[in-house]
């Protein structure tokens, strides 16, 4: 359009210059001049309409850009809410499992302490009535020693379970970066997860590394990743304990740290293999699955832990293996 206007302007100028050279406008020159001037006005008017339309489109694009930014922020906010909801769901399962597991040692402690009190009262009554024999005291001492050993053993078991759960739950609630020894930390995560699977047909095994593995990372998000992968295998690979099997966690160290979670369950359905980390992909929607667990794992590994994750399903074998590569130290954000 700008080229057409420029062309008409040149034609009009040329006609005017020719008339000036002649000293007057003849009839043909006047007709040509008026015709060119009319075309120029039409083109100019059309150009103005296009400019106005362009301005309106630019305004619409600007408004659309602002709307996209707003929707992006809203999407990020909702995604963060989903991450928190998934985190709370994982913690809820841990709480239930730990509470169930604590019932056993606490029940034994209560029963044993009641028995010890009863025996102590009985011996005290014999002593007060001057009827206590040496054999009574000896029998009490043996029984008291056995009860004390039982109390100590189950108190230690409960204390270790609570300590593991406390470390994992606090880390999942607080996103602090710090130095940790990865073997010991993964071991505490595995211990906190075992109560969730107690009474079912699934075992969680940690293949400990022979060497210490120091790492600077976010323990909370790392704990959530491991928890989600184990619970995902339990739910989908073993149908929540209806199938028997094993989930194995292992560590390797080199230029990067490799953490793998492997199971011998029923594997990944063919229709979801290529989109396992996509949001809302699940084969358990009828039983309450949201399809966000592995998507959240993927996002945490890439964005928070600065690593990468892949899934492997051996041919002609059951189960699957998630492999996570982590840097030994995070880059400054």
TrEMBL record:
The keyword Transferase applies. GO terms for molecular function: phosphorelay sensor kinase activity. Keywords: Coiled coil, Kinase, Phosphoprotein, Transferase. Residues 54-88 form a coiled coil. Its EC number is 2.7.13.3. InterPro entries: HATPase_C_sf, HATPase_dom, His_kinase_dom, HisK_dim/P_dom, HisK_dim/P_sf, Sig_transdc_His_kin-like_C. Residues 97-330 form the Histidine kinase domain. It catalyses: ATP + protein L-histidine = ADP + protein N-phospho-L-histidine. CDD domains: HisKA. It holds the Pfam family HATPase_c. This is histidine kinase. It comes from Candidatus Terasakiella magnetica.
């Amino acid at each position: 359009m700008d080229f057409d206007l420029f062309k008409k302007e040149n034609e009009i100028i040329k006609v005017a210059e020719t008339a000036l050279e002649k000293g007057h406008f003849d009839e043909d020159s006047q007709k040509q001049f008026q015709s060119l001037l009319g075309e120029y006005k039409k083109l100019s008017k059309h150009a103005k309409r296009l400019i106005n339309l362009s301005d309106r489109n630019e305004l619409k694009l600007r408004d659309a850009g602002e709307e996209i930014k707003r929707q992006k922020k809203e999407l990020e906010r909702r995604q963060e809410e989903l991450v928190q909801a998934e985190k709370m769901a994982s913690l809820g399962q841990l709480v239930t499992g730990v509470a169930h597991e604590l019932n056993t040692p606490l029940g034994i402690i209560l029963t044993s302490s009641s028995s010890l009190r009863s025996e102590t009262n009985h011996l005290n009554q014999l002593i007060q009535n001057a009827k206590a024999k040496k054999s009574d005291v000896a029998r009490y001492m043996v029984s008291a020693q056995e009860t004390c050993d039982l109390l100590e053993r189950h108190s230690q078991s409960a204390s270790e379970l609570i300590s593991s759960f406390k470390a994992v739950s606090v880390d999942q609630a607080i996103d602090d970066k710090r130095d940790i020894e990865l073997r010991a930390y993964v071991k505490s995560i595995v211990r906190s997860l075992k109560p969730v699977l107690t009474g079912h047909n699934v075992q969680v095994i940690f293949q400990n590394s022979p060497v210490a593995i120091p790492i600077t990372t976010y323990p909370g998000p790392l704990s959530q990743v491991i928890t989600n992968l184990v619970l995902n295998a339990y739910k989908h690979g073993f149908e929540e304990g209806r199938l028997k099997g094993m989930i194995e966690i292992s560590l390797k160290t080199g230029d990067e740290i490799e953490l793998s979670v492997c199971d011998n369950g029923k594997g990944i359905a063919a229709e979801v293999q290529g989109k396992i980390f996509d949001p809302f992909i699940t084969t358990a929607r009828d039983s309450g699955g949201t399809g966000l667990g592995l998507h959240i794992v993927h996002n945490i590994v890439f964005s928070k832990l600065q690593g990468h994750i892949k899934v492997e399903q051996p041919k002609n074998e059951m189960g699957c293996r998630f492999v996570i590569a982590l840097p030994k130290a995070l880059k400054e954000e």
